[in-house]
Amino acid sequence: MKMLTAMYTIKRGGAYDRFIMLIEAFLERGCEVHCLSLTPIQIRHPFFHNHVAYWPFSKMNTWQARLFVVSIFPLWALWSGWRNKIDLIVAFGILYAFIQGFSKYLLRKPMVTLIRGDSSFGLRMRNTYPGLLYLNCRIESLGLRFSDSIITNSGGLREEISKKLKTRRHIDVKVLPNNIPTIPVPDPQDLIPTRARYGIPEDAKVLITAGVLNRGKNIETLISCLAKIEMENLHLLITGDGSTKDDFPYREFLEGLTRDLKVENRVHFPGWVEKEELSRIYAASDLFILPSMNEGMPNAMLEALGSDLPCLGSNIPGIRDILYYEELMFDPTDEQAIVNKINQVFSDVKFFNRIRELCRERKQAFTFDWKQKIFQTITEGISSPEAN
User: Which CATH number belongs to the domain containing residue 251 in this structure?
Assistant: First the structure.
């Protein structure tokens, strides 16, 4: 089987890790993969063919780069698909479904689209010009309708997509959640040095949140809650950084907020860390918490579960699929509810043990071979009568 996909540039974050895993899933099963991009994809395999377009500028995350991708990639995908006699198109996101839809129809090949989250949410959070929001909605609508099969990572996202596809009921929308990736096992003796590296006392209680830092993560609410919790030895680690230039001012805003609330000595910003260091930070922490307003299915939370770290999160689609139990969730707009939940975790041993037990149960639910599942789900989708 020959598969065609595209990703104009790889950025930090769980979604991009999944894209690499997707390619590896096909390569490991003897398939040939052709990938269009503006920057080289760091995969070395005899069956992997990375077709890199010439882009004369150093910056990739600009409107010029996006315009170039939307203008050039459709014809380029058609040419590459025809020249390499591809059998299947996989679109990693609605934008790429729109871009590769032209190839799908002219080459008469099936296209499966993977959707990891609400692409328009980030635009709304950045107060994007209404005209661009409208254009994004039209692209989303066409991308969905170009697809033969759609795979999401949460039940809530499937419901949203099904509503948008109300006039196209024959398009199959499946759910394949993210799994817990392999977690490096840290040395227990690293706990104290890890805390010392980030200026955290040995006897402190440590909250941690992690991921791509943008306004959708709602970290400002967590910082405000920390200022209201009467625990002088409670520290917060905000691990991660922005993924695009639009995200970077958010960290500066958060750092300013810690100073305004006089908690800067208890809030730490390690920045973006590698997997091995993140596993050490998880081992040195007491509670993972994610107060996001919108999520696909956060890999950082799954990694925390895989590290046997108790987790709390917003009661929103994506996180709800992971945590499931009401005890593990809160309303992200209700600061007092978050304060009460954190206080209860650290003051009520019975409640803490209950949280830890539920999280261990949820860990088991997400321990599986994602590469095998995604390959099986995609190939089953293209062999169905609707896709032919």
Answer: 3.40.50.2000
